[in-house]
Design a protein that fits this description.
The protein is of the alpha+beta class. The protein has 2 domains: 2-37; 46-190, no CATH class. It is built from 2 helices and 10 strands; from the N terminus they run ααββββββββββ.
């Protein structure tokens, strides 16, 4: 009887150990399912650009698509159509001080940033509705400031959409957008109160 109990006990321990190993092996990634768990490269990574200009903190938040052998302006992004100036959600710009852009005042705040690219000039719009998906909800009636900017042709291709905010000193700065073969510079002045 004692021998039967000991044999049963050993069998039970062996079964438990086998079961535990099977469970552990079941959860280990195999070569086949390892590929599916490997993160894929994000095609339009979320990023930002910011700088202090005078005592203003200017921040641009956007998703950065790449050219990937496509014709961007006049192709992927049509001329004379509204574009959210990035991928996915609309690009937004925030400033803690009022800025003077193209002779007009942009009050301190957070704004959706949209553009209408053209061959000769671009329209740039700072919209009161900053939290938008793409351009689907864009309405020009919610624009706070609209300016016309002439683009510059780049010598070499800018693969990823890139924004920069630069301090040009004496409370002057510039917000730049560069992608594919085009760049726009939006000069601004920080207004002091």
């Amino acid at each position: 009887m004692k021998k039967t109990i000991i044999t049963s006990f050993i069998a039970l321990i062996s079964l438990a150990a086998f079961s535990q190993n099977e469970h552990a092996n079941h959860n280990m990634p195999t070569e086949a399912n390892q590929e599916s768990t490997t993160p894929k490269k994000v095609l339009s990574p979320h990023t930002s650009a910011m700088a202090m200009v005078g005592d203003a903190h200017v921040h641009v938040d956007y998703s950065s698509p790449s050219v990937r052998n496509r014709m961007v302006f006049g192709g992927l992004v049509g001329y004379n159509t509204v574009w959210q100036a990035g991928a996915h959600k609309a690009t937004w710009i925030e400033t803690n001080k009022a800025l003077k852009i193209d002779g007009k005042v942009l009050p301190a705040g957070k704004y959706g940033f949209f553009v209408v690219p053209g061959k000769e000039s671009w329209k740039v719009m700072f919209n009161s509705k900053w939290d938008q998906h793409g351009k689907d909800e864009y309405s020009e009636t919610e624009d706070v400031l609209v300016a016309t900017i002439n683009p510059v042709s780049l010598v070499s291709i800018q693969e990823s959409l890139t924004y920069t905010v630069e301090d040009k000193n004496n409370n002057n700065g510039v917000i730049s957008l560069a992608w594919e073969k085009s760049k726009i510079d939006i000069p601004f002045e920080v207004l002091q109160k």
